[in-house]
């Protein structure tokens, strides 16, 4: 969530291949009061076209069961947080979505929007399936950034291993590495769901942390 908060646009890559057992399919939760026993939150997913199924084509295998699992696991891990009661009320539209759609992308995007709204992110959301691009990987990402009028592309540590900066330079777009700190509230941020940080710090304190990190990243001093 920290990288999304720093950005002005979130382009949902909904037309890329869905990958099981990746962070697009699951999130890691951990209780606040120990013992430290992280648990994966994942939901049963049906891929109509097998491994070639794109994210926006993936379907919930059992929406009712998925709703119960999400609600129960979040409550099990975070109900003792002082910030849980208001968050639980805000979670209702996400849980209700399981009764309206069987598309995985609908529910996952809505849940991410909820987290961004909790910390007051003012940016815009776009979808790659609505935008005309060419090529793959670096070229495609550069095209997507250019279509938003971006001058900077925020790239996480994973992306920096394969990204070709030349594809961005021809568009006059700077590739800015995004690395979260390894201490404080950010100590587990690369693995843990953003819900964890929200339940530890609360929305107001988390927003202050995010704003401070955004300032450091954009100043080139992460």
From TrEMBL:
Q: Which domain of life is it from?
A: Bacteria
InterPro entries from the entry? WbqC
Q: Which Pfam families match?
A: WbqC
Protein name according to UniProt: WbqC-like protein family protein
Q: List the source organism.
A: Nonomuraea jabiensis
């Amino acid at each position: 969530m920290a990288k999304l908060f720093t950005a002005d646009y979130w382009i949902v890559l909904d037309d890329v291949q869905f990958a099981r057992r990746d962070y697009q399919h699951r999130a890691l939760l951990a209780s606040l009061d120990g013992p430290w026993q992280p648990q994966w939150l994942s939901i049963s997913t049906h891929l109509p076209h097998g491994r070639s199924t794109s994210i926006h084509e993936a379907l919930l295998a059992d929406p009712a069961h998925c709703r119960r699992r999400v609600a129960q696991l979040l409550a099990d891990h975070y109900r003792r947080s002082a910030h849980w009661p208001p968050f639980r009320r805000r979670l209702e539209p996400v849980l209700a979505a399981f009764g309206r759609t069987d598309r995985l992308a609908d529910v996952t995007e809505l849940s991410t929007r909820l987290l961004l709204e909790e910390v007051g992110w003012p940016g815009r959301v776009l979808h790659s399936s609505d935008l005309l691009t060419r090529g793959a990987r670096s070229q495609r990402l550069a095209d997507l950034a250019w279509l938003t009028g971006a001058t900077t592309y925020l790239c996480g540590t994973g992306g920096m291993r394969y990204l070709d900066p030349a594809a961005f330079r021809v568009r006059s777009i700077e590739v800015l590495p995004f690395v979260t700190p390894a201490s404080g509230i950010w100590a587990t941020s690369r693995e843990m769901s953003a819900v964890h940080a929200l339940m530890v710090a609360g929305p107001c304190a988390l927003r202050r942390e995010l704003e401070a990190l955004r300032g450091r990243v954009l100043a080139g001093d992460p």
